[in-house]
Write a structure and sequence with these properties.
- The protein is of the alpha/beta class.
- It has a 6-stranded parallel β-sheet, sandwiched between helices.
- Helix content is about 45%, strand content about 10%.
- The longest helix is centred in the middle third of the chain and has 20 residues, at about 140-160.
- Helix 1 packs antiparallel against helix 2, helix 4 packs parallel to helix 13 (about 315-335) and helix 5 (about 140-160) packs across helix 10.
Length: about 350
């Protein structure tokens, strides 16, 4: 039985007051564009005219995938473990961005095919060493999927208990673009061919093979076609944990920064379990993976940035954070025409 989440749509009564405040800042109406939209959303979620961003956290969920045995990625599975060591050393993309923007960074072992030591700087939520190969069987059992959801909620709750009200998520797992493509195709009803991208293969040489393997896996599927079953059959432990973490964040009325293709698919799954989660989501960027634009359009999401990113780890979400911070500073720090003696120079 999946955990139940009590995710409320924010009350609309405050929106007119937020709009009045934004419109009467010392600027022409709408002249700060996306900043005004973000300030409205954050004030609406927090139900205040003075929104704030407190103690941001970024969680990277890491896990391996059984489908890697089919050669759908040019990178061997051991890269997942090696990149975790890079995170610990502080030398990955997500490290410098976390330092730059003041995020507490946490790395969670959801299902890496490696035994980490008890003293290693990782949060141990390992369910199993890698999912199973979904070309031949479900990636995980129902019990494992539910445990992953639960572990994801625990990670978010711990951040919230430490004063966090804005959270972002990333992932590390060789072949998780394959799982994401299948989630997108199955849950959004989009042709698999449009969902499959090159992943970390910048040459694109593996694309045809990757598509053929995933098409066979999709044809072999014989489940009940529910969101939960698609998650279980094709997902990664790190992806399912992210879904649970997102749902819990929305229940706690936190702002959720959504990264690229993989995390957008996690938000897709979360929104199919409870559509109200989308009210709490800010989409950081449009990634360079083939299906990401289509998926954003399907969700009705407008990303902040378009930088050609395809690294994952949550890097796009953190790149967008200064703009979100600017939106909050705008509504809190700009003077209003009502407060100072400036002639209102627009209708």
């Amino acid at each position: 039985m999946l955990l139940h989440f009590n995710i409320e749509k924010p009350k609309d009564e405050i929106r007119s007051f937020l709009q009045d405040k934004i419109d009467n800042l010392t600027k022409p109406k709408g002249s700060l564009g996306v900043l005004e939209n973000l300030a409205m959303q954050i004030g609406w979620v927090q139900q205040t005219l003075e929104p704030k961003l407190s103690h941001p956290y970024h969680i990277v969920f890491a896990g391996d995938h059984g489908i890697a045995a089919e050669g759908v990625s040019p990178s061997p599975q051991e890269v997942t473990r090696q990149m975790i060591l890079n995170f610990w050393a502080g030398g990955a993309g997500i490290n410098f961005l976390s330092r730059q923007h003041g995020f507490d960074l946490q790395i969670v072992d959801a299902g890496v095919n490696h035994d980490f030591g008890s003293d290693d700087p990782i949060i141990n939520k390992k369910i199993r060493k890698s999912t199973r190969n979904y070309l031949h069987e479900a990636a995980m059992s129902k019990d494992e999927m539910e445990l992953a959801i639960k572990y994801g909620t625990e990670c978010t709750q711990a951040c919230y208990d430490n004063g966090c009200n804005v959270i972002s998520f990333g992932e590390m797992g060789i072949t998780n673009t394959s799982s994401s493509a299948l989630w997108m195709s199955c849950m959004a009803g989009i042709d698999l061919k449009l969902c499959v991208g090159a992943g970390c293969d910048d040459s694109g040489n593996i694309l045809s093979h990757k598509y053929n393997v995933l098409k066979r896996a999709q044809e072999n599927y014989s489940g009940d076609r529910s969101t939960e079953d698609y998650m279980r059959y094709f997902g990664g432990y790190e992806m399912v944990m992210a879904v649970g973490a997102m749902l819990k964040a929305a229940e706690l009325k936190m702002i959720i920064l959504v990264d690229g293709f993989i995390m957008t698919n996690c938000m897709l799954a979360a929104s199919r379990l409870d559509k109200n989660v989308l009210h709490y989501a800010i989409f950081g960027h449009k990634g360079d993976e083939a299906g990401h634009r289509l998926l954003l359009e399907y969700l009705g999401a407008t990303p902040i940035l378009n930088l050609g990113l395809r690294l994952g780890e949550g890097t796009g979400a953190l790149c967008a954070y200064p703009i979100i911070d600017s939106a909050v500073r705008m509504i809190n720090e700009m003077n209003s025409f009502k407060k100072i003696q400036v002639t209102k120079y627009f209708d």
